[in-house]
Structure formats: structure tokens, C-alpha cells
Design goal:
The complex is a heterodimer of chains A (431) and B (442). Chain A has 431 residues and is α/β, with parallel strands linked by helices. Helices cover 32% and strands 21% of the residues of chain A. Chain B starts with a helix and ends in an 8-residue tail after the last helix. Chain B folds into 2 domains: 24-82 and 383-419, Urease, subunit C, domain 1, CATH 2.30.40; 83-381, Metal-dependent hydrolases (TIM Barrel, Alpha-Beta Barrel). Chain B is globular and about 75 Å long. In chain B, strands 1, 2, 3, 4, 5, 15, 16 and 17 form an 8-stranded mixed β-sheet that branches. Classes of the chains: A alpha/beta (431), B alpha/beta (442).
Amino acid sequence: MRKRITLFLLVAGLTAGLIFAQAKPAKVIAIKGARIVPVVGDDIETGTIIIKDGKIEAVGRDVAIPAGAEVVEAKGLTAYPGMIDGYSLLGLQEISGVNETVDNRETGRINPQVRAIEALRSDSMHIPISLANGITAALVAPSGGLISGQSTLIKLYGWTNREMAIKASAAMQIEFPAIRGGRGGFGGGMGRGGGAGAADATRLIAELKELFNKARSYEKRKAFAAKTQTVGLPGLDETSEFLLPVIKGDLPVMISVHSDRDIKAALAFVKDENLKAMFYGVEQGWKVADELKKSSIPVIIGSTYDMPPVWEDGYDQLYLNPVLLNKAGVKIAFSSSSASVAWNLPYHAAKAAAFGLDKREALKAVTIYPAEIFGVDKMMGSIERGKAANIVLSDGDILETRTNIKKVYVDGRDCDLSNKYTELLEKYKKK
Amino acid sequence: MNARLKRLWIAALILAVASLPAFSAGGSLLIKNGTLLTVTKGVIAKGDILVLDGIIRQIGMNIQAPPGVQVIDATGKYVIPGIIDSHTHIALNGTNEGSEAITPEADVGTVVNADDTAILTALGGGVTMVHTMHGSANPIGGPNVVLKMKWGKPSEDMIVNEALRTLKFALGENVKQSSRTILPGGPPPRYPQTRMGTNAIIRREMLKARVYMEEWDRYNKLKTSKTPPKILVPLRKDLRMEVLADLLRGKMVARCHDYQATEALEFMGLAKEFGFKIQALEHAWEAYKIADELAAAKIGISVFADSWAYKMEAAEGIAYDAGYCAKKGVLVSINSDSAERIRRLFNDAGKTMKFGGLNETEALSLVTINPAIQLGVDKIVGSLEVGKQGDIAIFNEHPMSAYTRCDMTIIEGDVYFDRAQYLKEREEAAKQAQAPKKGGRP
């Protein structure tokens, strides 16, 4: 009896050990024989990628495979860097029509204190679906009001919200007041721009500037109080307190802005306030592409699954906008602007390519460009030595709808690609 | 001729003219050197299509254009049958008669809006025909209408009379008004408020329709008998019952908005119980759960590719739905249900190659021949075949590629969308807007 128990314990222990070993990334992995599209640098027709401790150790045509490495035969597959979604609702929204599951819009208008990371549902059913389509990181943004809160940059694999954070706070989200009201999407419908008219917008921009001014005085008072014993600390001003990283230049703003006039006003605002900025949406950016280029402010393209906000701009303007911005030299990244179809990210890029965007630029705008825009290009966005091993193995062009994703590595971990889609499918296949 | 006779004569003349068949010959053109994706007859690598007076007359190679017929060079391009949207609500002045639960008399065919810019949007996405439907506010909505996207033509020219007459039904969250807040002092909730009630109210109306039909049968039989009774009380026409009677007599088919497997199966049960035909289930996000039952009952589905999780009953709407059901033998179409998605139906169809493993032709079928079959117009449209109407779209890349774009849309041999022309006009308009205004006059 005793022997049996010992044996049982031994087996159980071994099994547990095995599971544990499987859960941890193998120390060295060699992806062998794949076509490699590093995005930065030339494509490698057949090459090898060595992953060590979650990082890319080597990439090339003739890379020696270290002894003891786990070899992944990838003949016929293409290796891409994991894609990065420039703006999503992943983890903040499960079922958009069921308020109980929606956490991306706080009530009130001025909410710099709210942080997407603190509400991010790590177990969201939408995250593994995006991952299974080759997306390994995403910006998750709150929206609504004037200052919506702090977005977060996450990797799409992990057991807890904090484990998933690449940048717990990635940007302060601002919805720029819309001057242009009336017909079409700007300032009115489509849930963008806050619904302000021209007069309102001027007042709202003034209000925004006043908030930044106030935060600056608050900072000065705090600094002065800290230096001297004669003046007490100012009482907590929550809004100012959470704008401090922005005015100090530690946290960029992401300004959601749409029409050409508003983009111009936002450019002036960023200059006046001396902010580190990126723009989101920017549907009429093509009309002010040169000004945008001059400002060096990068642009996260809103969803192409939308109607052109101004019909006169043309039925194809949402598809053409990224083409024209790219041509003007503006740095662009695509976004899904979604939770439930965040996995469609590559198809927004392909859509722009259908209307003239260079295919390689389209690919960059879902990989290295968003990495650069979010300041994480030293860590990800391409297949290069030293970067995190966020690698996708596919059976074709990663931006094509017909392409199947075979494997996804995040930090060198061979991710489980099962998700709500596959689980339900498998369940009913058994019927 | 006295005045009365003259008036009669004129009236007769007007009647005679009005009763002539609406004669629209359609256009003629020759599309040359395209890759023809006929959908039903394979792929022709470098082929031509000749459309004469709106009808496809010849498909093949090296076809010569008859004198005066416009030639369209499709070298390097892909030529497909015009895309058909099996479920949308565009080009209507009003969609939902939601004031009551049962409104089969509310026919959207009477409120077609030929000026809806969504028609242009549709054309820009290669769409030539739509099934534009009553909304989903009530268990029995109303008749729907099939339109061709003939922008610039009056609404009566857009209506496709050859199509099956369809009646909209709806189940689930919309009809039970789950998103509606009942305010204190406001109107009481409309029956039904549950899925039980929804099924029950449809059954009630079918029972009523059955009685109504029996009554008319009795009345007609007596009236036409050799010895009609002296006193025969005439029956009253009931517009609601007339429509339901048409459904029960097989002169109409049902198109039913549903999400969940149970409600779909129960509606199928009602159809069996009362002997009406369900042509397709709309949205049907849980069709994959009952694919065998659907295939056995020969009931099609008209679904989204991937728009899901927007409400509770769409929470298990997996992107495999369309492809999986198609493989199981269900007649599947991908619909837009929106003026935005309608311009990328081809992209949505392409997604079934990843989810469901359909091949290019099968995927393309979901937005061409399959919706045509569902609408009962597969004899006239839905594929590139000699004898069918010349409804054609031309794409720069394979339409199932994510990199594709619609360059031209043709209906019955007339060009309704031409991207090259569109760009030219836009450029000219921009030039004119920038040109310095000629001064002189105040």
C-alpha cells in the first residue's frame, strides 16, 4: 500500500513537473527553414530564428542551431513580427450592448485619473482571438468626455492584467472638441468628437488649456512647498495631480481628432502646451498632411469600417487617407478601434493597400511603426536580435484574410491559440 | 364625338399605354480580357463577356464587339457577377413599424427611397442587388423588397418583380424589447416580452390566418356553387390576414431574424406545424449549433462574417458560422445589414476561407449565387452565364483577396459605377474649386 502511494506521488510529481516545464518557455528555441519577414531589413527567403530566454538571439540565413535547442520545423511558413494594434477596446468591453460588460467610458468629462490597465479584463474572450490572428500587442484606450483617461499598452498573452502590461500607462487620451458640427460624422454622430458646435468647441479648447495651466501652477506650488517650510502643500487637486506626468513630458497625449479644422486646432494646442503627442482618428488628415508632417506627430488611423464622415470627400476617403498621409511622410499606424473584431487589424492595413498604400508600408504600419509611435521599438515591432521574441508563423501573407496563423510566440512562449471561436466550433463538431 | 365619349377614349388610351410592359432594354457592352470568375461555370483565364440589351449573350475568348458597342478593357482584372446583399435596410423611407407586435400589412416595398446615397455606397462595393427588409422590431414585421442598385432611376425601375415575395419575422431580444426601459407612468410593455410569448403570438396569428382562409374557402365555395344560399354574408378583407394567408398558401416565404439555436428550432417547428416555407434565417449566429437540422430542412441562412458580441444573444457568434454551415450543406449568404458593411461584402466573404476553409469559388458564392437562390432570382442573376442579366462587377485583384478593390459596377449592361471616371471627376472638381475665380462682375 505504502509503495503504491509512493509510486502515485512519484508519478503525480513527475506529471506536475512536466506540466510546469511545459508552461515555462523552453530556454532555446530554433525556428528553422521559415521565410523570414523581419520588417526592418531585407526578407530572408529561408532562414533560422534563435530564441533564447524569450528574446531573439539570432536571425539569419546561416545561423547555427545551438545544441539542445528545441527545433521548430517551419518549412513553408513565413515568420513575421507580432502585429501591434494602435487603438483597441480589448479587455474593456466584452459585449458592447450589455453595460455590465462595458468599462471603457467613465462618466463625467474630465477623467485623467482613470487608467485602462486597472480595469483590463485579462481573461477577455476577445484577446485570444486577436492573438490567434497574429496580433501580439495592443493599445487599450478609454474614451468619452474631454479627457478620457490613461490608455495602456499590453501584450495579448498573460494570466493577469499587470502581467500583460508593456506600458501600464501609455498615453493620456484626449477627445479634442470638434469645431465642425452638423451633417456627417464630425462633431455629431459616430460617437466621436463630443458633439460640440463651433462656439462650444472654442470654449472647450479654452477649458482644456485652463486645465493644463492649472496643473502647471499646481506643480509649481507643490515644488515650492517641498523646498520651503513656509508654505504648506496644496490640497489634492485630482485632475492636476494626474496631469503632472503629461506636463512634465513623461506621458504623451493621444488626441482623438477628426476634421481638418480640428486637426489644425489640435496642432496649435500641442505646440502651445508643449506636449508629446500622437493623434488618433484623423479622418481628414489628408487635407492637412503637410502640417502634420511638419509637426512630426504620428497618426493612429481610426477604423476603416466606417462611412466617410463627409460624403463630399469621396466614398473611398477612409481608405485613401492613410495612403495620402504615408505619401506625405506622416508616420501612421493602423488600429482596429474595436474589441470584438480587433482581430481584423491586418485587414484595415490591406484595405489601404488596395487603394494605393505600398504593401510593405502597410505591414510596417501594423508592426514597427506602432512600436516606434509607442516608444517600444527597441523591444518589439520587428524580428531583430535583442528584441522580444514576438513572432508569428503563418502560411501566407499576414495581411491576407485567407492566411492561417500556425504559431504565435510572445516573449518566446509558444502560445495556446485556442479561443472562444475554436472552443465553440470544436464543441459542436462533436454533435 | 360628345365630350363623354372623348373622355372615355382618352382614358382607354392612357390605360393601354400604361399596361404596356415596362420596356427597358438595358445597355450593351463588351468586357475584354478579364479573369472571369463565373461562380457556376468555373474560371476563364483571359475571357470576354458580351452584354447586349442588358443580357449576357456570349462568354468566351476573342469576342468581337458589334458596331457601336462599348468595349471595356479588363486586362489584369477580375470580372465577377454583381454582388447581392441578401439582407439590408438601405433605400427605404422607414424600416420598422414597431408600434404593434404584428404588422404584416406594413410593406417596405411601398417606401422605396431611390435617393438614398447608400445605393452609391453599395455600387462602390460591387453590389448590384439587395434584399431590403422590414426591421426586427416585431415578431411579424412585413413584406420585404428586392431592388437593383440603379442609381438615378425611379424606385419602380429598381424593384425586381421576379424575386420571391418574402415576409419578415423576428425573434429574440429585439422583439421582446429587452433594451427598452419601461418608465413609470409610461405605456405598458408590449406583448410579447419573452421568447415564449414570441413563439406563442406567431402561433396565434397563424391559427387566425388558418380560420380566415377556411372562412374564405367556405364563402367562395358557397358563392360559386350551383345553388348559392339566398343569404350569404360577405366576408371582410383583413389586410394582415391576407398576407399571412399568402404565406400559408406558399405564395410568400418567410425570412426570420433569429440569433439563438432554440428560437430558430422552434420557429422551424411553427413552419412545419402550419406548412409555410422558411427561405432563410437572418443573422443566425448559432446556426452552427443546428447545422444538420438546417441542412435537413433545406433552410438557408443569411449571416454576418464576424460582426458579433454586440448584444447578449450575439455572444456566441463565432466567425466559423458561415463557413462551417456551408460545409454542412446549408445554403449560406453573407449579408451587410448596414450601409457601411455593404461596401465590403467581398472582404467579409473572403474571411470564410480562413474560418471554415472554403475555397475561392465557395467563398464568392456567399455573396453572389447563394443570395440569388435565396431570393429566387438565380435564373436571372448571381453568376456569369449566357442568358442571365448583365449584372457584373470588376475588381483590380481577386475579390477574395484583402488587397482588392472594386473598379466598376454594371447593371443590365449599364455602367453605374466607374472608379476611373469617378477619380477623373473628383480631380476636375478639385481643380475647379482651386482655380482663381474670374472677377469682373459684382
